[in-house]
Amino acid sequence: MDIEKLxxxxxxxxxxxxxxxxxxxxxxxxxxxxxxxxxxxxxRNDITRLRVFLSFVFLEIEKTPExxxxxxxxxxxxxxxxxxxxxxNTLDKYFKLLKVFYRLMRLKNFSQFxxxxxxxKRYSKFEIKHxxxxxxxxxxxxxxxxxxxxxxxxxxxAVHIRFxxxxxxxxSESLNITYGDCDFNEGLFKLRDTKGSEERMVTCSGDTLxxxxxxxxxxxxxxxxxTIFQTNKGGRIVKVGWIGQVFKSTxxxxxxxxxxxxxxxxxxxxxxxxxxxxxxxxGIPIEIVKEYLGHKSIETTLFYAHSKERQQKxxxxxxxxx
Length: 322
Known about the structure:
Keywords: DNA integration, DNA recombination, DNA-binding. Pfam families: Phage_int_SAM_4 (PF13495), Phage_integrase (PF00589). GO terms for molecular function: DNA binding. This is Integrase/recombinase XerD. InterPro entries: CB, DNA_brk_join_enz, Integrase-like_cat_sf, Integrase_catalytic, Integrase_recombinase_N, Integrase_SAM-like_N, Tyrosine_recombinase_XerCD. The chain is about 55% helix and about 5% strand. The chain is mainly alpha-helical. It folds into two domains: about 15-120, DNA polymerase, domain 1 (Orthogonal Bundle), CATH 1.10.150; about 135-320, Intergrase catalytic core (hpI Integrase, Chain A), CATH 1.10.443. Strand 1 and strand 2 (about 190) form a beta hairpin. The termini are far apart.
């Protein structure tokens, strides 16, 4: 422990100002995060940090979040370190917060800084989170529990989860699919709002396609620009956190019933994880899996190729041969 640093009187940091513009962005972020159900203390800390960022953007460099660029983010983190005297672990928290903020605001101008930071190992170790994958048997349990629930959105939620499993799409990608992106005859879907900003095509099974077409009949709006996963009222796009909340509560119920080990870390992203493992298990070349899932780097796909689920299956297969 650095006692000298600990007992030293630290310089007072400049008070962060809040303008009506800043307040508007804070309110938008707060609404999204409250819907995600995060803890009040976490939200309060995030709002405090976000206020610092927005104050820097609006008052220091006189820009708005939509037009900030890579150089602006470099200036901001230099400002945090040199002028506000923040420690490395706090810079990590700001970095993670801005990733969430720009994703929730559906802005892509943080992605270049994020990728560059990943390559240069600036703020985090960037380890891929070790979610447990999911298989068809477990998915069926989840789907059955949702369909048998009393939720008014149970059909949409069940179809959405089945769609995510088949396509391996990211949740945000699926929420932005419009009728114009769909070929309901061939079961092909164009993903345009992707993490890598490159369009790609995905497909689904015949059963999923029929379920999707059945669900879409009840949508309020069905024009080419309307999203296929809509709210019950007015055809608005479903919020990002909703399906994650439904999925988590269903998994928690199955854990309480003893149908899933409580130490399993299963989240919505497990559907994408499971799809990657399943495709690789079926012998699909890793380069094709990479393109299908929209991975920028082959290293990401290799993570799934060497996942513990595949290792366990390999051990079982070897044991049968012995």
